[in-house]
Structure prediction request, 174 residues.
Amino acid sequence: MSGGVDSSAVCLLLRDAGHEVVGMTMRVYDLPQQFTENNDEPDFIIKARKLAQHLGIEHHVVDVREEFRRTIVQNFLDEYSNGRTPNPCVLCNRDFKFRLLSEMAQQYHCELMATGHYVKKVVHDHKHFLLMGDDLRKDQSYFLWRVPQDTLQRCIFPLGEMEKTEVREYLDEK
Prediction:
């Protein structure tokens, strides 16, 4: 949960569909502009926590700043300094974000994992495939292509069949 439009919509959609929702926010990197108040936590964490409280859902913050710097940021720097143009999101989603999401889901006994990515998933011959989301301007399938099968099988993507304007309208109705 980022506390933004997409994660807020996912939480509401799932709750309205009768799912028990447990939220997780990852603290991966602090930037000065993320702190508008004199707080120890960035604004997005405070916003996500308030959203969870408002929705009456359990919420956890996972501080993984050091691991993120060591793995994702350092890999980007190494690749770039070797003349390559890495896409850190692909590595992050496979080795970091979805791994942590899976670990937390197991820890809190969550059967499924949901994200606010604009992507669709189909199953064919027991394999899970990602398709572009309906909103081509927001499609994120290219960031998720390396997420492992055992993780994808537990993932749902509630925003895949929506356009961003529909997501905003849904939230406005709430």
